[in-house]
Amino acid sequence: MSIQMHVESLNKKHAEIEDVIAREELRPQPDGIRLKKLKKEKLLLKEELHRLVRH
């Protein structure tokens, strides 16, 4: 897999997680633990994207 394809894949995952977070936050009683895990996963993806793009 090329770096560009990997970056595109990570961007897609990042966007999907953002959508899941947004839907969870709209629920009457959002699951705080799930939100925390999703946000951490999103942050890790963002950090990996920045690392790849800088190289």
Write structural notes for this entry.
The protein is mainly α. The chain has one domain (3-54). The protein has two helices and no strands. The chain has helices spanning 3-26, 32-54. Helix 1 packs antiparallel against helix 2 (32-54). The model has no long low-confidence stretch (mean pLDDT 95).
Keywords:
single chain, 55 residues, mainly alpha, elongated
Quick structural overview:
The chain contains 2 helices and no strands. It is mostly helical and 55 residues long.
With helices defined by DSSP (H or I, 4 residues minimum), what is the helix count?
A: 2
Task: Let me know the average pLDDT.
Answer: 95
**Residues in β-strands, percent:** under 5%
* Amount of helix: over 70%
Show unreliable segments.
none
List the helices and strands and how they pair.
Blueprint: H1 3-26, H2 32-54
